[in-house]
Structure formats: C-alpha cells, structure tokens
C-alpha cells in the first residue's frame, strides 16, 4: 500500500497521456494499396485499411473533420434513416447505423484531397511517418504539457492523436482527445506548394515539424477552457480570446512557436489598424462576423482584415496584456481559462494599441 501511495504521489498529469501515432502508417498502407485501382475500390481500401482499425481519435476525426455532412445526411435519408428516425435511437445504435456512411464520405474526401495535391502528399510522407520516432516531437509535447500543468496545476490532459487529413485542419479537440492533422505541419523548404490554395501556400512554410509541439499545447489549452456562462453570447471578442488565450499560454509553455505565422507578422506591423477594425465588430455575435476574422482561409484577402486568423492575434495580445498586468500569475491563468467575462478581461488588460 505504501509503494502504491508513493507511485501515485510521483505521477504528474502527463503520465497518463498517450501519444498515439498508429493511424499514420495505416493511412500510407491504404495510400499504397489504392494506387491504380478504380474509384470505388480506392474508397473501400481506405475504409478497410485506414478507418476500420482506427484509434478512438481517428473515429472522432472522421466525424468532426473528414466526412461531408450534407452528403452523409442525403445518403442516410435515401437509405431510410432520416434525422427523426435516427434521433429515436439510442446513442450506440446511431453510431452503428451511421459509421459506414461516415467512413464512405470521409474516404471520398481524402481521395479528393490526394487527387488535388498529389505531389504535396507524396513529399510529406516520410516526415509524417517519423512522428513517433522523433524525440523532439514526443518529448517536446510532454515537456510542453508539463510546463502548462505548472501554469495551471488543476490541468488533466487527454490523449494526443496524430492523424492524416485533407489539409483542412491543423488541430482540434473531440471527446477522445487532441486530434492533430499531421500533414499540415510536415513540409520543409523543398516541399512543393504550388498545388495548394493561396492560404496554404502562405501558411504552410511556417507550419514546421517542430511547431507541432506548440500546436499540441495550444489544443491542450482548449481542453482546459471552460464553456461560456449561461446567457453569454459568443461574440467575436469572446471567440478571439478563446483562440488567443490558447496561443498565449502555449507560448508561455513552449516559447514563441508561432512567431513567424502570417497573422503574427501582419499583426505586429499593423497592430493599431487591426485593433481599430476589431473594436468596431468585437461585440457582434454570429458566424458571418467570426469568419471574417478567424478560420477564414477561403475568405478573399481584402475581407480578412489583413491576414488569415488575425482574430487569434488580437486575442493573443489581449491575453498577454492581461497576464503582464496581473500580480498573481497563477490566478491570471485560471481567470483566462475560465473566461467568465470577456469584456472584463479586456478592460483589466488595458490593451489599447
């Protein structure tokens, strides 16, 4: 009993975190096996080789990032499963019914990306496969999470899943844990980018392999953030703070991992002008406003306030100003994570470039 007590006392919040990479080699097995096959067979191969043996993280990845929900809904309805009927089923039964539809659509989306960006995917293969053997990544992630836990001792972190997607997402969170789109952060100066959309050509050169550490810690911050208090609107300010706080606390934990990102470069050069624009819209809620400031790779450059995801930059700067002014740094971290009142955080920060 004494030995068990000592072991538990020595554990940290990081000891139970798994870094799961096994889905990546399965993706490349499917990639090889699908070469030269007709389209229907390629879909079946990705379903069988990549998805069906997948980790819990990959199962969530299919649902939250890979499948096309409109296609899935239409196919379910044609198969006799309209939404009302699905809603009447227990949760486990819904998963069994929908899984084949999700997998088929996800495979189609992946194959479409492979067809659009063949040279890019081929070029990043070796790097993505190296995640589990690259100690700079695996040890860096654990060090970053350990430092974040020092900043916020109540932290308990879920597992990290390194996955392959359609270039649409660098990272997100889901029930299973932190989900990382490894292919977005696997390029180097020799990787061909000419096939990619404009937002990717601008951003991927700063998505270095080493930046995966900062990205994971950014997502880890999201797993600690509290939901908005009941009755509060999801304004642009609150949304920008949610992402900016994650960027700022990740920087405290691992250093300036995103300093060369276009949003930070542009923000440093145009901080006053960005802030003037932001103030005009920060109290507005709604996806149409948020998409002008964040998650806006497909928004025309003249409408994205100077840089993709520049809203992250504003939130990051407010969070930094708030932390710098705080006498009790640990309490400041807790208040940023709880974000009970976004307007109060802004006022207390004194941010006014």
Decide which structural class fits the backbone.
Answer: mainly alpha
Number of E-type strands: 4
Tally of alpha and pi helices: 18
Measured on Cα atoms, how large is the radius of gyration?
A: 21 Å
Major β-sheet profile: 4 strands, mixed
Task: Explain what the structure shows.
With about 350 residues, the protein is mainly alpha-helical. It folds into two domains: about 20-220, no CATH class; about 230-350, no CATH class. About 60% of the residues lie in helices and about 5% in strands. It is built from 18 helices and four strands. The protein has helices spanning about 1-10, 25-35, 40-50, 55-65, 70-80, 85, 90-115, 120-130, 135-150, 200-205, 210-225, 235-255, 260-270, 270-280, 285-295, 310-325, 330-340, 340-350; strands at about 20, 160-165, 170-175, 175-180. A four-stranded mixed sheet has the order 1-2-4-3, with helices on both faces. A hairpin with a 2-residue loop joins strand 3 (about 170-175) and strand 4 (about 175-180). Helix 4 crosses helix 7 (about 90-115), helix 11 packs across helix 12 and helix 16 runs antiparallel to helix 17 (about 330-340). It is globular and about 60 Å long. The model is unreliable at about 1-10 (pLDDT under 50).
